[in-house]
Amino acid sequence: MGHISEFGKILIILLTGILLVTLTLLLSKMLAPKKPTPLKLSSYECGEETSGNSWVQFNSRFYVIALIFLLFDVEMIFIFPWSTVFAQKELLAVSPSWGWLTLTEMFVFVGILLLGLVYVWKRGDLEWIKPEPKLPEVKTAIPASAYDRINQETYKIRPFSVHSSREDVIKESSTSVTGTKPAFKPTFKRVQK
């Protein structure tokens, strides 16, 4: 009665896992502060403000490739127990046909997997979407010749030096700059509290 079977050990591990997950969820529910604000309740998009509708259409091919990878990855898990059982000499000593039977079963199993891979490949589900590159067209009052002139202009790049002083940089920048160039001035969006 004091002996626990292998399935009993698995049941104990499953019950312990379920109990730990339930306890941590209940503990976080009881201890977490509950101070919702409109800013906290807004959706978070990797630090960017959300724009547009969240119900946009996207290509599901990425998920199909992930599922195909997962399928083949999980199927490979079944090969490891087979290989350990196939290598047991005691089973082969009992019945010599046991080795040929298990080898044939595994060839059928891997053959079905390869047929599935060929089917998915022929269907084109493994090919990425190859968009056609298009140059952006912007309607602006600035002529294209101005952009061409800026792109064809050569700029002097000074070598990097750790020991350069501020006076050297100011002297060099005053000699190399002939006119005023537009500078990048970042603007930050103020979040209302």
TrEMBL record:
Q: What topology does the record note for this protein and the membrane? A: Multi-pass membrane protein
The molecular function terms of the Gene Ontology recorded here are: NADH dehydrogenase (quinone) (non-electrogenic) activity; NADH dehydrogenase (ubiquinone) activity; quinone binding
Q: Which InterPro entries does the record cross-reference, listed alphabetically?
A: NAD(P)H_OxRDtase_bac/plastid (IPR023043), NADH_UbQ/plastoQ_OxRdtase_su3 (IPR000440), NDAH_ubi_oxred_su3_sf (IPR038430)
Q: What is its main location?
A: membrane
Transmembrane regions: 12-32, 62-80, 100-121
Q: Where in the cell is it found?
A: Cell membrane; Membrane
Q: Which UniProt keywords apply?
A: Cell membrane, Membrane, NAD, Quinone, Translocase, Transmembrane, Transmembrane helix, Transport
Enzyme Commission code: 7.1.1.-
- Report the domain of life of the source organism: Bacteria
Catalytic reaction equation(s): a quinone + NADH + 5 H(+)(in) = a quinol + NAD(+) + 4 H(+)(out)
Enzyme class, spelled out = translocase
Please give the GO cellular component terms listed in this UniProt entry.
Answer: NADH dehydrogenase complex; plasma membrane
Q: How does it assemble?
A: NDH-1 is composed of 14 different subunits. Subunits NuoA, H, J, K, L, M, N constitute the membrane sector of the complex.
Which family, according to UniProt?
Belongs to the complex I subunit 3 family.
Function of this protein?
NDH-1 shuttles electrons from NADH, via FMN and iron-sulfur (Fe-S) centers, to quinones in the respiratory chain. The immediate electron acceptor for the enzyme in this species is believed to be a menaquinone. Couples the redox reaction to proton translocation (for every two electrons transferred, four hydrogen ions are translocated across the cytoplasmic membrane), and thus conserves the redox energy in a proton gradient.
> Can you name this protein?
NADH-quinone oxidoreductase subunit A
State the gene name recorded for this protein: nuoA
